[in-house]
Write a structure and sequence with these properties.
With about 90 residues, this protein is mostly helical. The protein has one domain (about 25-85). Helix content is about 90%, strand content about 0%. It has 3 helices and no strands. It has helices at about 1-25, 25-50, 55-85. Helix 1 (about 1-25) runs antiparallel to helix 2 (about 25-50) and helix 2 (about 25-50) packs antiparallel against helix 3. It is elongated and about 50 Å long. The N and C termini lie far apart (about 50 Å).
């Protein structure tokens, strides 16, 4: 139960940071977003192994999360590159 709460907390924090990265990009936020995306994937993998959950449903949820999170990081990276190019 604690592992599930930890996983959900990390994922929610990750989505908040990723959203901030997309809206107000910085190199530090991009790195922190990557860290939290990795932590979410690691905790999700541990959760699947520990609880013997069906891998298919977990992978689909994980891919949806990953697509959203990576989209935010990509948008933030492009905005940051655009800002730095105009300076």
């Amino acid at each position: 139960m604690i592992l599930l709460i930890t996983h959900i907390s990390i994922a929610l924090i990750s989505l908040v940071i990723t959203t901030l990265t997309a809206l107000l990009p910085s190199a530090l936020k991009i790195r922190i977003s990557g860290l939290f995306i990795g932590l979410t994937l690691i905790s999700g993998t541990i959760l699947v192994i520990a609880t013997h959950q069906p891998i298919l449903s977990s992978c689909i949820s994980g891919l949806i999360y990953l697509a959203f999170a990576m989209s935010g990081v990509i948008v933030g990276s492009r905005r940051l590159a655009k800002e730095q190019a105009t300076k």
